[in-house]
Design brief:
The complex is a heterodimer of chains A (111) and B (112). Chain A is mainly beta. Chain A has no helices and eleven strands. The chains are: A mainly beta (111), B mainly beta (112).
């Protein structure tokens, strides 16, 4: 069974601070996605990475896929209260479109 | 992107009753639908994969007789929680197979 461990589990920071969320596994993924989910809603896709070592930027968010495609990180610069939410990584093994979700990181950004 | 709706958005039922959750793909033909369950403050757990016109495949530990999935058309997949119990209370979310994965808004089930 593929497992995706995220760290930290919880993070409470002040507005303007930077943070990094990690997503680690012992399995290799053909693609990895990051989502943000707000209470009572479905997850919303932020980014998909498919190439080892790939780095993608989305405004203040920077996503990196590990060289071995077993891990990923999400870095947020100058966090804002609007960034508050549950961040989930999800990986799919080669040859499948079935995504397994990480354990989640709950972020709270205080004004 | 694809628009996915779920109905109902929330439901409260008594223990022992059955509840049907509908997932509609409004502008997208979904040959495959993924059903997830999310307990409070936890991540999403894949329950099953349904394919239009064929039987669903269930993840390990998910009872297929308890969680009945029907995918009768390219735009509709349903999940029926049979003989619901309080431990089935959860947030159920569907997602059609697509290049960029989209999710329905979810259905919150509370079993009393």
């Amino acid at each position: 069974t593929q497992l995706l461990e995220q760290s930290p589990q919880f993070l409470s920071i002040q507005e303007g601070e930077n943070l990094t969320v990690y997503c680690n596994s012992s399995s290799v993924f053909s693609s990895l996605q990051w989502y943000r989910q707000e209470p009572g809603e479905g997850p919303v896709l932020l980014v998909t990475v498919v190439t080892g070592g790939e780095v993608k930027k989305l405004k203040r968010l920077t996503f990196q896929f590990g060289d071995a495609r077993k891990d990923s990180s999400l870095h947020i610069t100058a966090a804002q209260p609007g960034d508050t939410g549950l961040y989930l990584c999800a990986g799919a093994a080669s040859g499948t479109y079935k995504y397994i979700f990480g354990t989640g990181t709950r972020l709270k950004v205080l004004a | 992107g694809a628009v996915v709706s779920q109905h109902p958005s929330w439901v409260i039922c008594k223990s022992g009753t059955s509840v049907k959750i509908e997932c509609r793909s409004l502008d997208f033909q979904a040959t495959t639908m993924f059903w997830y369950r999310q307990f409070p403050k936890q991540s999403l757990m894949l329950m099953a994969t349904s394919n239009e016109g064929s039987k669903a495949t269930y993840e390990q530990g998910v009872e297929k007789d308890k969680f009945l999935i029907n995918h009768a058309s390219l735009t509709l997949s349903t999940l029926t929680v049979t003989s619901a119990h309080p431990e089935d209370s959860s947030f159920y979310i569907c997602s059609p197979l697509s290049i960029e994965q989209f999710f329905g808004p979810g259905t919150r089930l509370t079993v009393l």
